[in-house]
Amino acid sequence: MNEIQLCLSEMQAFFQSGTTLGISWRKEQLKRLKDGIRSYEKQILNALYEDLGKTDFEGFATELGIVYAEIDEHLKHLEAWAGRHRVKSSLLSFPSKAYTIAQPLGIVLIMSPWNYPFQLTIAPLISAIAAGNCVILKPSRYSGHTAMVIEELLSKLFYSNHVATFQGGAEMNRELLQHRYDHIFFTGSPQVGRLVMESAAKHVTPVTLELGGKSPVIVEADADIGLAARRIIWGKCLNAGQTCVAPDYVLVERKVANALLEQMKSAITSMFGSDPLHSSDLGNIINEKHFSRLIELFAYGTLAWGGQIDPKTRRIAPTIITDPQLDSALMQEEIFGPILPLVPYDTFEQALAFVQKREHPLALYCFTNNKEHQKQILRSLSFGGGCINDVVMHLSNSALPFGGVGNSGMGAYHGKEGFKTFSHTKSILESKTWLEIKLRYAPYRGKLALIKRLFS
């Protein structure tokens, strides 16, 4: 029996013991997790800097802070989420009462990415623990420093029959996916997401896929151009552009395209100085492979600003590209770096059509004060989530579900939605015995008119 199978067997026995069913026990685990993270804050922030060049501010704001908020949200509402919920009874089942209860799924596999290696590992773990499950975690090998800190921390906090961490690359991923789980939660690229789904299908295992895609920004002429430029550049340069909901390209009304470009240049200089490559606030690209891929994208348009690189530190200055080749990798693949193409449009309908012809994005942002256009965007475009007159900030609200649609993913989490993802909602009808209505029993002759009235 290999290590994974042994771990699964021990988890199965632990889950079947019923220990994870207790709400107070689950809350105790969440509190232990929060205390453990607090005691490891410095190690976590150091690891994020080693892997991605994140400052302590960015590491806390985008990773630790969000995790703390998730834990607090689950602790506050767990009893209500896990409790019995009455629903309306049906006249057909009178006399009875109906209700739902949330039941843990069992053993879940969480596979996390490298770009937000702490948050995107621990946030789903919080929901899985709160829902009463046992969890196998597989962090990305690309963010190796953070992965090792996660393993060390969790091994001190939890027994391996409750939460276990497995390290490795593609070979470990394939080995893990050969086994059966009660749910698989994957965050990563659509390409790998398809492989995860194929493996899960062999065991009829449900999946949550948090993928990516090209998240557009629409900027209209009536928008506050200076504000739009600052917020777009901030969102694009967060984690050096390695954010699944980062603005991937900007559709800008042609009459304000030059003004937006100039304001973006100003925003870059304001945030990162005249020499961004040496700014302590700009992170680095995760590895050589992704660094080289990003540099190749420069060739698919006109370099309007930036373009400086430092191979030693794997840093790329915030770069704006105009006249992008629409059939190139720059406009067909998720960029995942601090490179931003600008695409002008003449009419609002052109902007809508441009987005509609492409895969559904994980996020969409629009900057406009036109209320009717805001409504049209929300009504006619399919995307995971987004903001009006802002970018990325919808992730800061744990009450908002986070997830994609179509090629950008399936399923959602954060807050209550995360608890629901790792739970099965069991439906119960509790019939009374003090009255027996025999309408449902044969013989049925002469009963059709009455049953029709009950259904009408």
User: Average pLDDT value?
Assistant: 96
Structural class: alpha/beta
Radius of gyration: 25 Å
| Name of the CATH homologous superfamily of the largest domain | Aldehyde Dehydrogenase, Chain A, domain 1
Give the distance, in angstroms, between the N- and C-terminal Cα atoms.
58 Å
What does the overall shape look like?
globular
* Residue share in helix: 40-55%
Query: Number of DSSP helices?
Result: 16
Please specify the SSE layout and strand pairing.
Elements: H1 3-16, H2 23-39, H3 41-52, H4 56-82, E1 85-87, E2 96-104, E3 107-111, H5 119-130, E4 134-138, H6 144-157, E5 163-165, H7 170-177, E6 183-187, H8 190-202, E7 207-210, E8 216-219, H9 225-237, E9 249-253, H10 257-272, H11 288-296, E10 302-305, E11 309-310, E12 315-316, E13 319-322, H12 329-332, E14 339-345, H13 348-356, E15 363-367, H14 371-380, E16 385-388, E17 409-410, H15 415-421, E18 423-431, H16 448-455
Helix pairs in contact: 2-4, 3-4, 3-6, 4-5, 4-15, 5-15, 9-10
InterPro entries: Ald_DH/histidinol_DH (IPR016161), Ald_DH_C (IPR016163), Ald_DH_CS_GLU (IPR029510), Ald_DH_N (IPR016162), Aldehyde_DH_dom (IPR015590), Aldehyde_DH_NAD(P) (IPR012394)
Keywords: Oxidoreductase
Pfam families: Aldedh
